[in-house]
Amino acid sequence: MKIEQLYTKCLSEATYYIMSKGEAAVIDPLRDIASYLEKAKRDKAKIKYVFLTHFHADYVSGHVDLAKATGATIVYGPTATADFDFYKGKDNELFTIGRLKLKLLHTPGHTLESSSYLLFDEEEKEYCLFSGDTLFINDVGRPDLAVTSSITKEELTEKLYYSLHEKILGLPDHVLIYPNHGKGSACGKNMSNETYDTLANQKKVNYALNTDLSKEEFVKQVLNGLAVPPQYFPKNAKMNKRVNTSINEIIARGMSPIEVNQYQHYLSLENVMLLDVRSPKEYLEKHIPNSVFIGLDGTFASWVGTLIENINQPIILLAPDGREEEAVTRLARVGYDNVLGYIKGGINAWEKEGLIIESIQNLEADDLELLDKESSFLDVRSIKEFGDDRVNVSENLPLNHIHVAANSFEKEKEYFVYCKSGYRSVIAISFLKQKGFNNLININGGFNAIKKSLIPTKNCKKNCPTCACNK
């Protein structure tokens, strides 16, 4: 028996490869299927099934391409409907993979078709549960994403309550819980950094598995504090119900090198976005005018899906040399398939042509000049982070609200912009520049650096002369 968890940190997403006696199955595959094909080839195994726990909202799945490449059967739970051929599994139905058996447990709540898969080992003992977005480590899947005219989030939460109590809590304590997501995913609100756990321990630490909670209390606790989901979620959910362009085609098109003079031509023809995916430091030092920044070395995919509102947006990339295909692939994972190519030669080619380069002032937090200026601090962290601690004279503009909330701020005012460590602040500055903000200064190292400086914060304990806590 072989079970492999493949964890994609950018999406906080886990997918699974199972193999026994020359037969394999994949659970919740990513859109780029090469890794699964390579594993099956390594194991000299045939991929027999592609199991889906539900129609994912936070990424585009590779189930159709994987089934086409291997002849595998796609399996969804009861009530699922889609534009491609698949097998609609029944509650408690068993599937055989070599000497293993996988039982489909219909566990609606996160979505109506949501299912979990209970794996029995070679000795026919319950071994682990692939719980999808029904049960996370320390949390459960949010029930507000599948709301329709015929079902409310409260009704979905009640279904989740019964799924947990009737299907999962009665399993043996030693069963391992393998969820679809971990901390950082917007599919829940309180997930752990751990990517698996025993059911026994989850019964102790997961608030949603507290059997003392009544159904009404469960509904209230699960729905309390849910953030607004990223705008791309319903778009990805729709894509997962249809046949999409092959990722190989998307990569082939996106890997087209574009000369600097060709880029000018693209701008004249289409509403093209130039997406700079280098490091924050590189973007601050020099970037192409009117480009926006979302760096690859961060939670790239989720910020793309949150901030680029048009999923069909034509995009040209400015990427680190050798990472162009990675950028195209990671965009396609969340359905941004319209990459036209990348700037050949990058920023250096732009400079060689003598074209305009822009930069953004990047100050250290301990620069005393900050204390002498009557400028505002712009905190682009989440509302919760801002409430926990912040610069005393700061205003909050959460990055995920930037398209709407930016209209409430003065475009000509000078702002010192910060986040936690310096990734989100550079993203925010690039999008604010598109909206006409021209007096933006980045604080290097973000709030982590500010806490070590003399800048007074809400919870300051430094006893510095200028600190508001001494007044």
Automatic annotation (TrEMBL):
Listed transmembrane segments: none
Name of protein: Rhodanese-like domain-containing protein
Entry-linked Gene3D superfamilies: Rhodanese-like domain, Ribonuclease Z/Hydroxyacylglutathione hydrolase-like
Keywords: Metal-binding
Pfam families named among the record's database cross-references: Lactamase_B, Rhodanese
SUPFAM superfamilies for this protein: Metallo-hydrolase/oxidoreductase (SSF56281), Rhodanese/Cell cycle control phosphatase (SSF52821)
Rhodanese domain segment(s): 268-459
